[in-house]
Backbone:
């Protein structure tokens, strides 16, 4: 068993918005950026 990477997206109020387990570093930054943009759109209404 190797390293198991996880990502937690927490909003400015400290509330957990999303969790991703077993992520791969390749392309992950772009994937998270898109997820945050989508969360922002959903919050904006």
Residues:
């Amino acid at each position: 068993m190797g390293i198991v990477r996880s990502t937690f997206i927490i909003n400015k109020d400290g509330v957990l918005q999303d969790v991703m387990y077993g992520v791969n570093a390749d392309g992950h930054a772009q994937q998270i950026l898109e997820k945050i943009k989508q969360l922002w759109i959903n919050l904006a209404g």
